[in-house]
Amino acid sequence: MKTLSIFAQGVVLATLLFVSLTGSITCMAANDIVSKTSYLVVAPDRGFLGNKTIEERFQEYRRLYPNAQLFFMTRRMQLVRLKQTIQSLLGSGTQQLNLLPVVLSKQEKSWKEFEKDLKAVQTEIGPKLNIQVGSSFGSSYLASELLRDRIAQISHDVKTEHLTLLGWGATDEQSEAGLRDSLTRLLKPLLCEYSFASWSVEVLWSNNEEPSASRRNQETFRRIIDQAARSSRPLLVPYFLGHRAESHMSVEALVRKELTGSRVEWKPEMPDEHPLLAQWMSRASAAFLKPNSQNMGVVILSHGSDQIWNEELSSALLPLATEYDIEISFNMGDPRLLQDAVNRLESRGKNIILIYRLFGLKSSFADSIKEMIGASQERETLHKNHHQSEGHICQSRIRSGSRLETIGGLEDHPLLADVLLERALSLSHGVPENETVLLVAHGAGADDEDQHWQALLTSLGQEMQRRAARPFANVMGLTLREDWPEKRKEALARIEEVVRQARTRGQRVVAVEARINGPGPTQRLLGHLEIPINDDGLVPHPHLRRIVLEAINSFVKLGEKQTQTLF
User: Fold this and answer.
1) What are the structural domain ranges in the chain?
2) Whole-angstrom Cα distance, residue 300 to residue 291?
3) CA-CA distance, 121 to 80, in Å (whole number)?
4) Segments of the chain with pLDDT less than 70
5) Domain covering 141-273: architecture
6) pLDDT tens digits, 137-168
7) Which residue in 73, 97, 235 sits closest to 163, CA to CA?
8) What pairs with residue 72 in β-bridges?
């Protein structure tokens, strides 16, 4: 068992302190948004109370992005006001303008009219200003998380409840369909957690003064009330950014009037009253940023083990803190621990957070991490890892105002072959051409995934032979499948047969553990074969952090080349 010296432990603590202290410096650098770039938060004009709540969320967001302005889409004088706003930004030195649409769907009439005016202004001013438009609020997983909170406020027993999700703002068939689709996309990822007896999505038209729209709205309320009569507990969650001049002159007041006397339970709380809207503004702004060592933090996600194991891996990776702000999180996709790590990086001013999955395979925890950070819209998924059988998992999601990304998986990186070759040579008696090396790895429960493991080990073995001054007689990749008793028996029988055949050929057999850090169970499981075993793993070899740094730098370089699509 390896141990950390008192000095080494001090290095770990000192480096952690260094990261903590420099965090205050990098925080200022990350928030020092280049003056040539500005952000324009574009929201519907909803009257005094509605605009006031949007302004409150905007001010929360503006603490992080001071080069931001708020623009309300109005029915009158919008083109004139927009032209004045953009000319003012040009006069202050803005060359890049990023727009954040606070709408649930870009099919909404107010947004489509704004787009027309925006294109007219852009045509008039020419190339002096580059304008990019981000995704809408309604397309973000944070909008879905906000809906989750609204449902949690009112739902108590989903098996007896019917949920009606109510939208507003349709002006024609197309906008109604767009809003319905947006609301359905927000709700569906939540149904693995809130498996209601039944649910429906309804959309009100905004031009209620028109007879046809008024008739449609009356039909909508009639359906809601009829459904309530058939349900044990009818719930309604209003989810829209509707007219809200004040409490009595608002869409909520209309809903309250129409549902009075019915059994429908609901609360008149709107999305703009929730702090997640400000968080979305920050996240949407970060989507335009190009990653660099100042604005990006890295969470290194690793399996973890006992204190010594964790200290050894931390000691091996903490030198990366000279390049990037690093948090090491020992877990297998625990959303609470990942949220804590993300929060710490955000507190140090990071706008982009990369989660690097330090596992053998690219696929390890990739699906669940993508769900956590909103990269996967489908929340209910077949989630596999080497400790769980297949099953439907309702994955918690991380709430963050930063841009979250994930990469990872060592696979058969060529530098790993160097490390494994060193480990094998440490056991050699100097006659490698008469020795067989077993590369032994954890393996997987699923046969196809375990075959992938063995293919990687075979590839690494071939690379070891190419790099060796004197190649071994044979290098074989084998898995223990140590967490699955029946499959472990088969794996051990295969290893025993490989050892027997090598000895029949007069070859000496040695084994090297192909894992991130040791020791694993190889000594215990293969001890009866009486073969030398190196169980050091990749720690503390410097190649491990070189591989991780290479992956992080590749992500940064790729981000530097990527650009947003206009409109």
Assistant:
1) 35-137, 141-273, 289-409+547-561, 414-536
2) 17
3) 9
4) 1-35, 208, 376-393, 561-567
5) 3-Layer(aba) Sandwich (3.40)
6) 999 999 999 999 999 999 999 999 999 999 99
7) 235
8) 43
What is the 3-class SS of 15-36, one letter each residue? HHHHHHHHHHHHHHHHHCCCCC
Element (H, E) at 203: strand 198-205
Identify residue 559 by its one-letter amino acid code: G
Give all strands of the β-sheet with 68-73 in edge-to-edge order.
Answer: 68-73, 37-44, 96-101, 130-133
Tokens 């002006």 label which residue? 171
Residue type, 95: Q
Alpha helix positions (H), 129-168:
141-154
Q: Checking DSSP bridges between strand 130-133 and strand 96-101, what pairing results, if any? A: parallel
- What's the token pair of residue 555? 């992500």
Same fold? 35-137, 289-409+547-561: yes
Question: What distance, in Å, lies between the first and last C-alpha atoms of the chain?
Answer: 58
The SS3 call for residue 161 is strand
Are the CB atoms for 286 and 175 separated by under 8 Å? Answer: no
Give me the residue label for tokens 């809130």. 194
157 C-beta neighbours (distance < 10 Å), count: 10
Backbone angles phi, psi at 262, to 5 degrees: -90, 175
How far is it, in rounded angstroms, from Cα 441 to Cα 491?
11
CA-atom Rg of the chain in angstroms: 29
Q: How far apart are the C-alpha atoms of 191 and 196, rounded to whole Å?
A: 7
Do residues 392 and 192 lie in contact, with contact meaning Cβ atoms separated by under 8 Å?
A: yes
Helical axes 447-467 vs 414-425, angle rounded to 10°: 70
Separation of alpha carbons 206 and 186, rounded Å: 21
**Both structure tokens of 123:** 């045509």
User: What was the pLDDT predicted at 381?
Assistant: 36
In this structure, whether the domain defined by 35-137 belongs to CATH 3.30.2270.10 is answered with: no
3.40.50, 1.10.287, 3.10.620, 3.80.10: CATH of 414-536: 3.40.50
* Pairing label, strands 352-358, 296-302: parallel
Find how far residue 76's CA is from the centre of its chain: 40
Helix (H, G, I), strand (E, B) or coil at 453: helix
Is there a contact between 395 and 379 (Cβ–Cβ < 8 Å)? yes
- pLDDT per residue as tens digits for the range 3-52: 333 333 333 433 333 333 334 333 333 333 445 999 999 999 999 999 99
For CA atoms 244, 245, 247, 251, the dihedral sign is negative
